[in-house]
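Researcher: Go.
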Amino acid sequence: MKHGFSPATRSPGQFVILPDWLTCLFTAALLCAVFLNEIIIYA
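Model: Structure:
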């Protein structure tokens, strides 16, 4: 999933500041928070 060359983006430097591993880490943290929230609700 490479969206770095989209003409709709204002500055291509955003994809240099946010690498793929950081996006993956953010997604993993978000899923982890949702998973822990489900455990707290059903516990």
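Model: The radius of gyration is 15 Å.
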